[in-house]
Amino acid sequence: MALTAVWWWPDRWLKSSAFLTMTLEEQGAYRNILDALWLRGGELPADERILAKACGDAARWPEVRAKVLRYLVKVGNTYRNDTLDEVLRESTRRATAQRAYRDRKKNGQDHA
What we know:
This protein has a single domain (11-102), classed as Arc Repressor Mutant, subunit A (Orthogonal Bundle). The protein is 61% helix and 7% strand. The chain is built from six helices and three strands. It has helices at 10-15, 17-21, 24-39, 48-54, 61-69, 82-106; strands at 44-45, 73-75, 78-80. A hairpin with a 2-residue loop joins strand 2 (73-75) and strand 3 (78-80).
């Protein structure tokens, strides 16, 4: 199931250590990486070319890399983000439940 929309909590972001310690450029690169993670089901290959492209500016990747990777977790040959993984799991759970509800309604199995 493809999830194309993501939950975002501005209050959580504005209080996060990523927001508070990163420059605007680093924040943008990090947010772009989070979007790429979301669209790829929560993981990106641990490949510098892919990460550089995903950050939004491959030429600036060497300068923002260390700060951005501080907020990612390397798992085997991929990078993940713990918070994004939690949101992805919950989003998938809700989407699955909603789809099951719609299917029951469509088939006349829901008598509420």
